[in-house]
Design brief:
With 272 residues, the chain is α/β, with parallel strands linked by helices. It is built from ten helices and ten strands. Strand 9, helix 9 and strand 10 form a beta-alpha-beta unit. The structure holds thiamine diphosphate. Thiamine diphosphate (TPP) binds next to helix 4 and strand 5.
Length: 272
């Protein structure tokens, strides 16, 4: 049986774009699950608008290509309508941290059981390179000819503080993305996964490769919140020389939004 979930759609990503690596890793993880008995219809994907959103055309899975910034609430809606669905959302850093930041914050609180992958190339790539909330200080483009003046957001810290039950960042490397996504799919609850994937046209970061280190190859205790915060503080998205931790920062299961809603329904019905 052919388990491939790739479509025949011609890719319009730039040659060599890091999105290809992410697509390949996601494809391998889902195909492995299909080989182990899951069906394509057991998955639901959601994408926003941007270069990242084109992944929708290349994955032969049911889903919704939603509005810019609305990936997270669309995932939540899917989960509420069909709680058994394995929902995976894909956003750019503009999609998730600018237009959609309010949704991202609420999703960390809600702990709905979906997985959320953020393709962070540190720019609005599809609209030709404007800065996002994770672009470094001093970045120059046509909209900021004097350079970005506001310090970047640290989304990993934000997710930790807002109570996300699974917080991870990966570099754009197949095995790393596969490992983290597989762990996220096993996790019951909201999983935030940021993939640092420099844009080859508007935000090259060749030096990133030398700076990554894998948390899971250290003594890092991913159930310790303070430790996770300390690791998240090591890279502030503006720094040019700090180490960049990747892997799972934090993981602790708690009741999901779906479970809490179900409990409430049971309580209301028993009062009737
Ligand atoms: C509501 C809304 N605002 C703005 C836009 C214009 N827009 C389209 S793509 C895009 C940038 C997307 O950037 P990002 O989410 O970082 O994705 P990337 O292209 O970098 O993968 C913007 C601002 C839009 N389509 N809809």
């Amino acid at each position: 049986m052919n388990n491939s979930i790739r479509t025949n759609a011609e890719s319009t990503w730039c040659p060599g774009c890091n999105n290809f690596i992410l697509l390949h890793a996601v494809q391998k993880v889902i195909e492995k699950q299909i080989e182990s008995g899951k069906r394509k219809e057991d998955f639901g994907i959601v994408c926003g608008i941007g270069c990242h959103g084109k992944i929708f055309d290349y994955l032969n899975l049911p889903g919704i290509n939603t509005l810019h910034g609305r990936t997270a609430p669309t995932c939540l809606g899917m989960k509420l309508a069909k709680p058994d669905l394995n929902v995976i959302g894909f956003s750019g850093d503009g999609d998730a941290y600018a237009e959609g930041i309010e949704h991202l914050i609420q999703m960390a609180r809600y702990n709905s059981d979906f997985k959320y992958i953020i393709h962070n190339n540190q720019v609005f790539a599809l609209t030709l390179g404007q800065p996002t909330p994770t672009t470094e200080l001093g970045y120059i483009d046509k909209t900021n000819p004097d350079g970005v003046a506001i310090s970047p957001l640290n989304p990993v810290k934000l997710m930790l503080v807002m109570g996300a039950s699974f917080v991870a960042r990966t570099c754009c490397e197949t095995e790393q993305i596969k490992y983290v996504l597989e762990e996220a799919l096993k996790h019951k609850g909201f999983a935030y996964i940021e993939v640092l994937q420099p844009c080859l046209i508007f935000h090259k970061n060749e030096d990133y490769k030398k700076r990554f280190y894998n948390l899971q190859k250290t003594e890092h205790n991913k159930t310790n919140f303070e430790e996770a915060m300390a690791r998240a503080d090591e890279f502030d998205y503006s720094s040019k020389d700090s180490k960049i931790p990747v892997g799972i920062f934090y993981q602790k299961e708690r009741k999901t939004f779906e479970e809490l809603k179900l409990n409430m329904q049971i309580a209301i019905n028993s009062e009737k």
